[in-house]
Amino acid sequence: MHDAPAPYSLLTDLPYEIILKIVEVTHPKDLLTIARVSKQFRGLLMHPTSASLWKHSLALHEPALPECPASMSEPRWAHLVFEEQCTFCGANDEAAEVNWYLRVRACKHCAKSCIKTSLQDGFRPLSDGTTSFERLIPSKLAYLDSMSFFAFGCFRSWSYLAADYEAVKAEYLSIRSDADRRQFVEERIALANSGRAHSHRCEIWSQKHQS
Ligand SMILES: [Zn+2]
């Protein structure tokens, strides 16, 4: 008597078009699981040409998840949103929530070493001194309560990835002309602002998703 074939081997025997039809109505979390089942599925699902399939699957989810950020691939976005793994060390951690502003999930250990919270504005790149580097990168601004104000003399704090801060600072310092530096700052601020608007929509989605 022959052993019954594994379910996934039956699936991979189907015509490619049929597999796509099945996969595009599958929940993104299940797609991530399927991608781990076999090399064939991983090759199919992680190939850049499968982006539309992921988009379809992500759009089917209710309430509709905000669009995948331009800086991420759809599978990476689905992994961040639906799987409970630390972005930095890969450990499973149910308690690690998505930080929508930094687009990471961090376990306690990695949060300590990778995410920085500062009560003071950092390096100010422009001569008018109005813009600090925290505004040029994915970051979250939080307003502190009055007790913190009296204790620390600060009314707000920034949280961001230490690596993002160092990378943007190095890039800025490598630019020679004042005009180019100003343009760089303006472009980065526009990018960071649109990222924060997207993060805010994701936060609202997350609250609805949990309720
Ligand atoms: Zn970790």
Provide structural commentary.
With 211 residues, the protein is mainly α. The chain folds into two domains: 7-79, no CATH class; 115-210, no CATH class. 52% of the residues lie in helices and 9% in strands. It has ten helices and five strands. The protein has helices spanning 7-13, 16-23, 28-37, 39-45, 51-60, 74-82, 108-114, 146-152, 162-173, 178-210; strands at 98-99, 104-105, 115-118, 139-143, 156-161. Bound molecules: zinc ion. The site of zinc ion has 8 residues, from helix 7.
Helix count equals: 10
Largest sheet: 3 strands, antiparallel
Mean pLDDT: 84
Strand arrangement, largest sheet?
3-5-4
Please provide the ordered H/E string of secondary-structure elements. HHHHHHEEHEEHEHH
Q: Report the span from N to C terminus.
A: 50 Å
> How many DSSP E strands?
5
Strand content is: 5-15%
How much helix, percentage-wise, in residues?
40-55%
Shape: globular
As an assembly, this protein is single chain
